[in-house]
Each structure stands twice: as C-alpha cells, then as structure tokens.
Backbone:
C-alpha cells in the first residue's frame, strides 16, 4: 500500500459559464519517504494537485487514499485533523502571521492541536535550535530575512512531525544562495523519512528530486524516476 | 485549541491593530457611557423630585381650596382659583376626624422684617404649634409657637437660622422684639436648618401664629391646610373623613382638593421613571450603532486577515477554532468598550453631581447592568456573522489572497 493513492481524480472549476478541467483522470501513487517534484507550465494543475494532496481542496470525482484511508469523504473538521497531524505546508510567500514572533509562528500548529504551553515551549525551543533560529525566536517576521522566514515556515510545517511535507515554490521568493540552503534543508528532512512533494518552476530544483512529475492541461504527462530511486 | 489559547490568540489579534481596536472600543464606550450618564441624569431628577416630596413628612394630606376636575396632581393643583376659601374654622374642624393626628393651617405672604435698623424682605408663614412636628423640623434655640386657639393672634415669632444670623449676628435672638410688617413680635425660637422643601427655605422664614399672619395680610383665608394621618394605612380613611367634614361645612359641595403625598410621589415617580427609561432607550440606539460597527470592523478584519485564516486552516484549524477566535475577539473588543464606557459614564455622572450638587445623579444599577450586558450581547451577536464568514472561507482561495 502506497502512502498516497490517487485514483481517477477530476477537478473542474467553473469560471462564468465555461468549465476548466484543472485535473483530469489523474491516478498516482506516492510511497512514504519519496522526494517528488511536480513541474509543468502555469495553469497545468500543479497547485491544484498540491492543494488536493493537502486536503485543502476536494476532487469532483475519484478517490484519494492517504495511508490507506479514503480522505475525500471526511468532514471538513476531520480533514482539518488530518492536516494538523499528517501534513505540513511550505508556501512560496512563507505565510507567517505578521504580529506573532518566530517562536509563536512555529508554535501555531501545536496550539491548534491543544498542546499545553509548557510542552509547546520545549518543542518550539528544540525546533528553533535545529533550524538555527535560536537568536531570532522573539523577532517578528518583518525583522527576519527571506531565508530566515522560510526556515521559520519550515520549522512550523515540521513541528508536528507530519508524514508528508508539501512545498509550493518554496524557493520562489528567495535569492539563489538562500534558495539552495532551503532546498538542502527540505532534502535533509526528506532524508529522515518525511515524504517531500515540491511544486516548482525551477528545473534545477526539480532535477534534484528522485521522481519528477510533468503536468500539462491537468493531466500527468510524464512520470520520471531518477536512476536510483530512494524508496523505502 | 484550548480556550486559554483562543483567548490569548484573540487578544494578540485585537492588539495587533491598535487604531482599529481603539476606534471600536471608543464607539462602544460612547454608547455605554451615554446609557450610564443619561440614566444617571434621569434617575437623579426622579430621586430629586421624590426627595423633595418625601421631605414634606410622612402620612401627609394637603388640603387646597378649589376643586380639581381630574383629581390627580398637575400644575393647576397648586394655583387653583378659589370658589370658596379655606378658613381657620375649617382647619379646626378637621381636627375632629378620628384618623387625623395633627392639623396645621397655612397662611403665607411676603413681608419685611426689621431689627435694629436692619431691614429685609422675607416669607412669613402663619401656622400653628403642630406644624413643627408635622414637618419634622427641629428647634435650634427656644421653642416653637405655643399651643393655643387657632384664632388667637399672639405677638410671637420663630425665625430661621439665616434670618437670625443676619439680624442678630452673635447676639442672642430669643426674647428680642422684631418688627414684621406693622406688627411688633417677640422672637421665641430659632428653627434648625432643614434644607428646602416645596419652595420654602426654613432658613429664610419667619413663622408666626396663623391669626397673626392673617391680621398682618388683612385676610381670613388660608393658603392650604396640612393634615397628618395617624399612620400610613390611615391615609385613605382619613382622606374620606376630611372630605365628609369639609363637604358638611360647605353645604354639600366639595370645592377643595385633597392631595396625599403618596399620590404626588407616585405620579412623579412614574413620570420620571418613564422618562429615565425613554432616555435609556435613546442611548441604547448608540449601543446598537456600536454593535453594527463591531460587525463592520470584524468583517473588515476577516477580509484583512484572509491569508491568515487560510494559513490557520492549512495548519489544521477547524472551523470551530476560527469561529471561536473571531467571536472571542469581538467579545473582547465589546468588553473593553463596555468597561471604558462604564468608567466614562461614571465620570460623567460624577461631573454632573459636581456641577449640580442638588441632583443625586447616580446611574441606577439596572441601567449599568443592562448597558454592559447589551454591549457584550451586541458585540457577540454582531461578531457572529463575521466569525462564521471567516470559518467558512475556502482555504485555497484564502491562501492565494496575499
């Protein structure tokens, strides 16, 4: 059983009276611990696929089984619980809450999970240390550099130790050097067993993934695996 | 999300936008302050008037010459035309009613008082010995009018504190002769200060026997007769007995008006109570406006923080979590507004009391509780719609908007 099983997924957006097939007849399996890059031109359905995988969106047809459980039929609160515990998001524009400090931003998922302040503080402290943000704990996002912001975002995405990490253009707003650092950080997390799915325009970054999915017009065009797929 | 975390998160959110929060708190505060202050004013006026009448003394019935058609109390009750005068004989007859304890005929006029070359204008009150206890006055020095026949014009006078100070200064007043109008009178006592009641200030008053006053003003009519019933329960039967006696003395026609203090008090209490309520209602409109403002501001907040809501959803916040956070924020803003408004209102009421010391402008408890509850209620009520909207935001679209 693969970690992610998509089967005949359809997603149709209605814009005015025209219908747009964002995803059509998509079937896909992703194993636990894989490193997957989703690539393709704008409007090819990459982001829609990522939102679907992250349970932010529902397919109009088809089934999505996450760890063997059909999650398309769950209520929105049950889906929220799955997102909370199993899925981490990293966004292109970081999506940090501007009025909260780095530490508080990282603590958000723990707070939503109802963890006690005491335990939260410990976990956040460890995460800040792991991501080299010790000295930045009490800084607000506008006092952090782009790289630091994305590191805070990644720390927040991984604090609940999710089974998979979904990244939408994680280096899109960063310069080359910082982008490299963030990429290695994500890869390091992947190396510890977290499934990593990255949507990217950047062929360099895509090329580093062990598996590349090329999309076009909402359909999967190519499914390439690197010579030595690292599947566990 | 634990309630404590929801509370902390909402507090941080409210404090994160100080201008917006400040304006909203101000709007709510003005509403609450308006309710507190206006009800304080209304209730103060009510208490002032009620206090005025209560200072008349308990179990009082006032007999006025002239028939009042409606029987209630209105401005005309005090200035009716006089078809048949009230006389000292009427007053003496009223004493025969079994339910009556004291009777004091009143004859009032303005005159001049002089002593040792000093002269001043003042109010002269002609009455009898019972008047002192009937009005619960006390003597500072000497004694009150002697108990004697109502028709006897003794040449004695009781003066108020201020008159005493002005005429005699540090000298003893009791026993001295003064001139009031054309009469030479001996001062036999000084009234203790008792403040004001029904336009009569005891400090600036000269009290003389009723017959003396009538001689002075060359009249044989009375301004009114004050009657004290034996008890509060005796008021109604006493009133009936008085009516019977007066009717008999007037060939079967009852052309006098009887006012009980209860009726006066009740009427004013009702009128001014209704006024306070009306004023509170008007002030409550500003609370409703503040409530709509809360809704508007919270809707703007939802729009402003769409990205944040999307993020929270992506991080696994349930609709309930988000609804609770926004509702808590609205409640907090209202609560802060209500607290500030309560303070402002009390401050305003205090200022009113300072400016008009006679007006006991304390906001009634019910108004304060109602204002605070309404503020909180409207905040939560009008916060519900924005909170629901926030909870229902589509996370994908919310995240895309940044």
Residues:
């Amino acid at each position: 059983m693969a970690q992610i099983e998509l089967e005949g997924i359809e997603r149709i957006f209605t814009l005015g009276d025209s219908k747009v097939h964002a995803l059509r007849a998509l079937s896909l399996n992703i194993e636990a611990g894989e490193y997957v890059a989703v690539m393709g031109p704008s409007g090819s359905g990459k982001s829609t696929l990522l939102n679907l995988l992250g349970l932010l969106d529902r397919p109009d047809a088809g089934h999505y089984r996450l760890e063997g459980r059909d999650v398309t039929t769950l209520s929105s609160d049950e889906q929220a619980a799955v997102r909370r515990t199993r899925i981490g998001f990293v966004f292109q524009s970081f999506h940090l809450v501007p009025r909260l400090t780095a530490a508080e931003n990282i603590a958000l998922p723990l707070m939503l999970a109802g963890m006690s302040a005491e335990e939260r503080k410990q976990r956040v402290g460890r995460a800040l240390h792991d991501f080299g943000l010790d000295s930045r704990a009490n800084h607000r996002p506008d006092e952090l550099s782009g790289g630091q912001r994305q590191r805070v975002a990644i720390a927040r995405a991984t604090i609940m130790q999710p089974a998979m990490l979904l990244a939408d253009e994680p280096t899109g707003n960063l310069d080359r050097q910082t982008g490299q650092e963030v990429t290695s950080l994500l890869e390091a997390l992947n190396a510890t067993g977290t499934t990593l799915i990255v949507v990217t325009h950047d062929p360099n970054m895509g090329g580093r993934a062990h598996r590349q999915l090329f999309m076009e017009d909402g359909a999967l065009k190519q499914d390439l695996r690197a010579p030595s797929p690292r599947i566990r | 999300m634990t309630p404590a975390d929801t509370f902390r998160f909402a507090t941080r959110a409210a404090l994160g936008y100080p201008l917006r929060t400040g304006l909203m708190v101000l709007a709510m505060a003005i509403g609450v302050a308006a309710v507190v202050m206006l009800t304080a004013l209304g209730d103060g006026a009510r208490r002032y008037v009620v206090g005025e009448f209560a200072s008349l003394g308990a179990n009082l019935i006032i007999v006025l010459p002239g028939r009042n058609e409606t029987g209630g109390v209105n401005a005309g009750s005090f200035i009716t035309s006089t078809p048949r005068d009230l006389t000292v004989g009427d007053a003496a007859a009223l004493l025969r009613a079994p339910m009556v304890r004291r009777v004091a005929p009143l004859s009032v006029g303005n005159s001049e008082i002089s002593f040792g070359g000093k002269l001043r204008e003042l109010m002269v009150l002609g009455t009898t010995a019972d008047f002192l206890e009937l009005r619960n006055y006390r003597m500072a020095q000497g004694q009150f009018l002697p108990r004697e026949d109502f028709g006897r014009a003794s040449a004695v006078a009781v003066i108020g504190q201020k008159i005493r100070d002005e005429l005699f200064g540090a000298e003893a007043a009791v026993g001295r002769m003064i001139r009031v109008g054309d009469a030479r009178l001996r001062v036999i006592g000084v009234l203790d200060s008792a403040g004001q009641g029904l336009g009569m200030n005891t400090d600036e008053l000269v009290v003389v026997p009723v017959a003396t006053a009538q001689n002075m003003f060359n009249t044989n009519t009375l301004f009114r007769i004050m009657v004290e019933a034996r008890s509060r329960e005796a008021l109604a039967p006493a009133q009936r007995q008085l009516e019977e006696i007066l009717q008999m003395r007037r060939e079967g026609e009852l052309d006098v008006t009887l006012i009980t203090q209860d009726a006066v008090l009740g009427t004013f209490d009702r009128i001014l109570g209704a006024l306070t309520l009306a004023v509170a209602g008007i002030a409550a409109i500003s609370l409703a406006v503040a409530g709509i403002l809360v809704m508007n501001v919270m809707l703007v907040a939802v729009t402003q923080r769409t990205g944040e809501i999307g993020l929270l959803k992506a991080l696994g916040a349930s609709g309930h979590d988000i609804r609770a956070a926004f509702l808590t924020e609205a409640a907090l803003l209202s609560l802060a507004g209500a607290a500030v408004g309560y303070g402002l209102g009390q401050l305003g009421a205090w200022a009113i009391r300072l400016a008009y010391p006679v007006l006991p402008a304390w906001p009634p408890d019910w108004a304060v509780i109602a204002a605070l509850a309404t503020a909180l209620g409207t905040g939560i009520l009008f916060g519900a719609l924005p909170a629901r909207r926030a909870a229902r935001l589509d996370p994908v679209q919310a995240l895309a908007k940044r």
